[in-house]
Amino acid sequence: MGYKILIVDDEPLLVKGLKYSLEQDGYEIFTAFDGEEALGKVKEQKVDLILLDLMLPKIDGLQVCQQIRLSSQIPIIMLTAKGEDMSKILGLEYGADDYLTKPFNILELKARIKAVLRRYQSIDQPIEERIIRIDDFKINTLGRKVSLNGADINLTAKEFDLLLLLASNPGKIYSREELLEIIWGYEYFGDLRTVDVHIRRLREKIELNSSNPGYILTKWGVGYYFRNK
Predict the structure, then answer these.
(1) What are phi and psi of 65, to 5 degrees?
(2) pTM of structure
């Protein structure tokens, strides 16, 4: 059985087209046409990824994303209208893993879906490689869980991938372009602010003072790096 994807959009023709195209690739598709129905489907069905439109009846996409993030780290790809730059940034702030601007190429959407799923799903590793201890962090690479000084940290898929990459390579500086290519897993044509938003959210979760970080530092004009104590 293929991965399960929930498509949330109030445009019936778009939903019908996406459903048909993704089913041809072996995905099992569920649909919802407003935010309220979407939250109900998430409770009813165990899905692997959500395609979530921003402009929805009853409950908008940002609120749906925020509510889902209270209890789940299901990968979410936001679908936004052209020119909604602030909404894109807000979507990432609320916990979306990626966004795609309408109208989009179905092949690009499929590439992004594959990249997100590939990074989110657990990788079958030897037992001894499942737990990585770096400074005060314990990173479970199989269960994709992180704890800091014994306290669990709730990270999104992309936040987890960023922390794992940076912490596994202390002192190595990654440019935003490199992080987009490595973490997002495809030739990314979006805004470089995507990386900045995820780094900021990650700092807010792991740093004592996100304005004066001790773990994830910025090399101005170059990129980001992880500093060991």
Answers:
(1) -60, -45
(2) 0.65
